[in-house]
Structures are given as structure tokens and as C-alpha cells.
């Protein structure tokens, strides 16, 4: 958040894969009128990928492998009825990245049933070649991309990940799910004593705070109950959120209009994390957080929201 609450993409791999080069032209191969598929080629077809979907693959190829344009091949076919990774959508993935020059793993997060990583299919946010590999992939697919420097880190390379400026990378991804843009659970009875929440057509909340003194204890209620996975303490969660100041009744930050955020439950203020743990994917949660579980009392912290009671509406979209 701009205000300092750590609702950001997890540090490490995701940050390393953020966009750093200008989007290149997209190939003309199209699966539909709205989704342009990156072409396969002899290089991507030469990558041997063994193993079942959802388990870490065994990837072999003759080194060095390189290409001048991103190539994408489908190793396991998914089902479009379960969703397609189109531009602007977030997708939950299991991924493996290797250096095309050496064959060494650049990064391999643990493969999990829910997907270990969440990406937005957006060339302005992530490396162009990764987005080209993911774009138009069906849920249940395993895809492999061979990505040249021009579609990755360019002339700078990535010292952090051990990729030299001239190295192509090999990217293998299992498309676990397309992340919804809003909570999809069943409406729950509204508990008394909480602010009221109404939703716009796109799911954006409007919070009405009563003209009374803010509660002094943490208050949590579930507005929609999802039937997805349970959020464990320390899990990585993808959410839409809106934060309102109880006293000023003004929104101080929100993901709506920017896109959902992914973070660990332990990487946010205490009250926000407590509102998530034990909830299920698809749920919408309303939480009122007193200063002691937000930014502390006035005089104890120099944060701009010190001494303030915060109200959050949180849509839980995915967990890994």
C-alpha cells in the first residue's frame, strides 16, 4: 500500500520478474479474437519436459539453448472450460525457471495444489517473455517458453538470479487456476455493530461508517463465505481490499482500480493478518482494527495512520 501496510507482491522471485523492458510485438497466431498465442518453434519444441501436472517437472535440453524471439510450446493440454489466462487476469501457477545457457535452475518455488505463485498477465508488470508464455494458456496446461534477453532482463541481465545479459531463459509453468477478481462466496447474515458495505457492479465496496465512537477491540465478520482452501498463518494470499479511516470516513488505500495484491499474512499489520487466518478462499471479510493492532497509538508511532481505527473490506481470491 502507498500508506505503508505491506500489501505488496512477495519479495524475492516475484519482484525479480517484474517488467524491465519495453513490450515487444506480439505474434499473429491467434486462438480467438481476443487472445493472441505466442508461436511455438524448433527451440521450444526441443525442450524435454517430463512429469505429471502439479509436480515439479524434469527438464532437459542441450546447452546452450537460445532464441531471438520468445517461443512457447504446450506440454500438457488443459481445458478452456476451466479458464484461460487472458490479458489483465491473475493466474495461480507452479513454475520452474532455468538458465538456457547453463541448464541450471534460476528459481523453482515449491509446487503446490493451489499454485505457488500468482502472476498478472500484463507486460507492464512482468517480463514480456513470461507473459507471452502464459497468455492464452488454459487452466490445467503445462507450457514451456524459451525467452531471449530482449523479452527478459535485456542488456542488464539479472545478477540476482545468475542470468548474464546474453542468456536466454527457459520457463515452465503449470496453470493451476485463473484467479477471480472478486469474492464469489455465499452472502452471510450481517452482524450488528459493523459498518455497512454495498458493492458496485464490479465488486468495488462502498463502506458506510456509523456516527459513533470506534470500537476499541478487533472486530471481524464474514460478509461472504467461500468454499475454497483455508488460509493458514504465514500463507501467501491474493486479495482485493479497501481501507477506510473510521474517524475521517475516507478511503486511504485500495487495490480496486489497480489490481489484486499478493502478500503473506505475516507481512501486514496484525489486525489485517488476523482477519485472514482461518478464512476460506472466495470469502469477503470486514474487519475493524484498533490502533494497537494497526499502527499504534498516537505518539507511539510516526506513521500517518497512528492513532487511527482502520476498516478493511477484504476479498480473498487465492492462497498458496
Q: How would you sum up this structure, described in words?
A:
The structure is a single chain. With 320 residues, the chain is mostly beta strands. It folds into two domains: 13-178, Chitinase A, domain 3, CATH 3.10.50.40; 186-319, Chitinase A, domain 3. 7% of the residues lie in helices and 32% in strands. The strands form five sheets. Strands 11, 14, 15, 16, 17, 18 and 19 form a seven-stranded antiparallel β-sheet that branches. A hairpin with a 5-residue loop joins strand 12 (196-199) and strand 13. It is elongated.
Task: Describe how the helices and strands are arranged.
Layout: H1 13-16, E1 30-32, E2 35-36, H2 42-45, E3 48-50, E4 58-60, E5 71-76, E6 90-99, E7 105-107, E8 117-120, H3 128-134, E9 142-147, E10 169-179, E11 186-187, E12 196-199, E13 205-208, E14 219-225, E15 236-245, E16 251-254, E17 261-264, H4 270-276, E18 284-289, E19 310-319
Antiparallel strand pairs: 1-2, 3-4, 5-9, 6-7, 6-8, 6-10, 9-10, 11-14, 12-13, 14-18, 15-16, 15-17, 15-19, 18-19
Order of helices and strands: HEEHEEEEEEHEEEEEEEEEHEE
CATH topology of the largest domain, anyone? Chitinase A, domain 3
Number of strands: 19
Which structural class fits the helix and strand makeup? mainly beta
Key features of this structure:
320 residues; mainly beta; Chitinase A, domain 3; 2 domains; 4 helices; 32% strand; disordered N terminus
